[in-house]
Write a structure and sequence with these properties.
With 471 residues, this protein is α/β, with parallel strands linked by helices. The protein folds into 3 domains: 54 residues, ADC-like domains (N-terminal domain of TfIIb), CATH 2.20.25.90; 176 residues, Rossmann fold (3-Layer(aba) Sandwich); 169 residues, Dimethylsulfoxide Reductase, domain 2 (3-Layer(aba) Sandwich), CATH 3.40.228. Helices cover 36% and strands 18% of the residues. It is built from 18 helices and 18 strands. The strands form 4 sheets. It has a 7-stranded mixed β-sheet with strand order 5-4-16-15-14-6-7, with helices on both faces. Strands 8-13-12-9-10-11 form a 6-stranded parallel β-sheet. A 3-stranded antiparallel β-sheet has the order 1-2-3. Helix 2 crosses helix 16, helix 3 packs parallel to helix 16 and helix 8 runs parallel beside helix 11.
Length: 471
Amino acid sequence: MIESRKNICLFCSLGCGLIVDVEREEAVNLEYDTECPANRGRLCSKGNYILELINHPLRLNVPKKDGKPLRWDEASAEIAGAVHAARDKKAAAVVLSGDASCEDVGLAVEFAVNCMANDKVAISLPTDDDKVVAALAGTSGGIMQATPDDVESSVCTIAVGDPFERCPVLAGRMLAARNAARANSLNVVSENSNTTSRFATTHLKGSERQNMLALVAAVAKTGGGKDGWQKSLVEGIDASPDAQRLAKRFLESEKSVVVVSTGDPVVAQLANALLKAAGDNKLLFALHDYGNARSITEIFAGGASTKDVIESAGRGEIDVLIILGADLVASYPDLDVGGALSKVKTVVAGAPFANKTTALAGMVLPTALWLETDGTFNGQARSAVVEPPGGAISYGNVLGAVSSAMDVELRAPSPTKALAEEAIDRNKAVAIASAAREEGAKPPVQSTAIRFADGSLTDRVCWMKMLEKVH
């Protein structure tokens, strides 16, 4: 008997619904969820390969140490011994991938406090989603959030970055909005020409920071809000004729939406400033690479950064490093991750597939995909659609097994929002304006229409077609 089970795609934050048909606990078919308001049954090229991801023949399914298989109790006991030995020096750390559930993150924090006696927990989000989420929250007071339906009914849309490349499903909605009426417009702010700008009514090309600052200035001077912080933000800024025309169109349109697709927190703050300057009835839609990035960042505000953990390892300050889901070598090509890991006595790497980081780990653990574990993702509790293969388990269960071996019981706290939403004031406006005049650093990796983040998952799809060629 075939049972249809619903879940979502986490290859971006849109939260596209999908249905996996399961027979005898094996995923046998992928269907589209036409009832999901995010995508109405559509999936992009990444989402369409989810069935292959679940059933991939190269999935890790047994713990190994130095290439030799272990039972889970043996692996847990050995990791527990290493963590216990590092406890007094506070020399253990945990890094989770950004596809972790909120409960996994909570368990990691509890594990650090109760088993490692420190707070060295980091979430790997190499596309800088966490920085953007925090920046948006820090300047979002009173800003209305758009839904995918709002995006599709927008009269004047301003796309910051390249949302078409990151999320083709959302691209369809944005094009539907532009084509719904002759006066409707799709406008793009991006450093270079890109997939989205090919369809643009107006393209403000060049520095995203400076163009967004000029657009805020044009909106403020054309008749937007009159808050005192605006003068501090846009003083001395001259907007181009194109920016002035776009500002007028944005203000006068019955419904306007700003779609933000960026790894630059300053650009994200300027998008919020644009909306605040424009006044009421203007909406924001923020698109992130990692589907659970916003929820994780909201409950994990102020946590350690992955870069800090890597640099600490490079200084010889970490004896035990547990990496679950993240391929740090591929995710941070600008850092000497290999050199840092070589200075760690015990490196444990958990992943669905072998990757550049598992190749450097003494112990490799098989971990489950989000589709194979219960948890809170993208703001909603989700149930696993299938059991993970072999001995693969969730990140939280890995930490639970190690804590049990240390005679410590972990209880995941209920996800609680810790990231406060704040309004823009004069001091914040001055800081944003100052940062906007500087060149922003780009994230080390980025997602595309066919590749998710560092590629540790999506680079392995298409195996079914490869087998067809072989046979």
